[in-house]
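Re: duplicated header lines in exported structure tokens

Our pipeline writes sequence and tokens for each protein into one text file. With two proteins the header for the second block appears twice in some exports. Here is an export where it did not happen, for reference. First protein block:
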Amino acid sequence: SMPSEMLLKIFSYLDAVSLLSVGCVNKLFYDLANDNGIWLKIYSSCLQPKRTIWKMKSEQTEAAPLGCAALHDKKPGYWKKEYILKQTAAVKTRVMRLAKPLDPYTGLPFKNKEAMKVSGLSWIVVLKEKNGKEHVVEKASLSFKDTSVTILWYSTNWPCLDVVSTLKLFGVTPLLLDQSRPPNKNGPRRLSLIAEYHLANLTESSVAVGGDSLVQLFSLNPGLLVGIWKERNEIAFVMVSLHYHQLLERSILGSATVQYAPPLNKPAFDDIDPEYGLHDYSLHLEMHGRSCTYLRGTFRNLFCRKGDIANGYLRLTVVSLKDNRKHLPLIGTLGLSWETDVFKGNVKDCYMMNLTLLDEIGEPFWCFSAPVHVELSSRTSGLYDYMGHIYTTNYADSEGKVCVKLIWLEETKEYIIVNLVLYVSTKKVNNWYGTNY
């Protein structure tokens, strides 16, 4: 019942975040909170140089208006939109500036934590039931590695697995970020869709990667791990491992409904020749749990000859079975830890693999972070240098495959990598270089 003029006067004392919030109350408040006069004052005071205007019988100063045309010739909400665009563009500029310096070993930005802090970035998962009902889970535990971040969500209100249809992963950034204070959880936010997973028939359509006495783990690309209570067939937790390559872009530059599409690669002028094959590639590899690292290594001068191209893949041999000088031990006991509000555990022989393959000019060519597991392949190694059981770890997506062969040494209680081979899709290579392998 309060006159609109009085409400408008009250709203004129609010800051930008409060105005956006009060505009969600009802239609009247939305219209009043879009007032160009209020937003022009906010816009000009924050983003335009100020000129002092002395008022009659007052010592107050105010930002100079940009002219009557700026108010009367613009549609309601015009200056609100302009202010939001300017503010978000400024944040993106700061983030991308931090993302420019690259680590010479990984070829990736090494100021990822600083960039995420500047953007106020966080992540949420949204589970959708078959009837359309949605469950939003925000509380997450983060674990940072050289080339990835692992995010764990758990809740006491997960829906039953039988009624879940999809899971969506979003990057969340404050719409208006105040550098002087932490983001307001209830303030206006922007969602960027990173990935959507179909969970219907999860246990039949996904890859089982292990389990312990309480949970069974299932994996979906890209980088999703779902823990299912064995006794109740309900979701226990959700874990996602995100590779830093394009992480910020996908978490910030997408929309709430459409994923960010990275620009096509512009191949550098080089001696690309299908007869010659790939050459001078570099690999940075991490194998880790949530809190410990089992292997971290950089491998250079990888190449693929014409004879290594078969069945739609180009083969890059990283560790050869015949060259025992390059065989690698895994440090520690393989396992992936998990927790909920009540229980915690560790799934043995399961870990996260972070792969960063750089082309001959150091550009990230193929990158992923994903849960994998080791499985028994043979009881005897057949190698003169080692006596033990042979295990394998395999990973595959639309861009390539990774095949790892390990031997378990009972005496030292450790795995030794004796063979590591990458198979890169010829379709991926052709799209990257514009050639025809």
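Second protein block, exported in the same file:
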Amino acid sequence: VVPGETALAFYKAKNPTDKPIIGISTYNVIPFEAGQYFNKIQCFCFEEQRLNPQEEVDMPVFFYIDPEFVEDPKMANVDLITLSYTFFEAKEGQKLPLPGYQ
């Protein structure tokens, strides 16, 4: 991905069980210092997702790396940014707070 250009990626999720699962995905950016430059335009994260038994889905994330990334001397040696997700089964009535918001 070239900083400043938008990109679309898909994450595959599969429910290997015989019962429906409702879950929420949270994300992580590595290296941590690059996270401030990673901007999600549209993402499945922090929204409940239902996966039926044995269902496999592709979940999209539309994003860009802020062009200021290339101007930051602390990012000079960073040539790989990893975006990962963890899918948690949702508990009834439980809401995850959005990061940075009270």
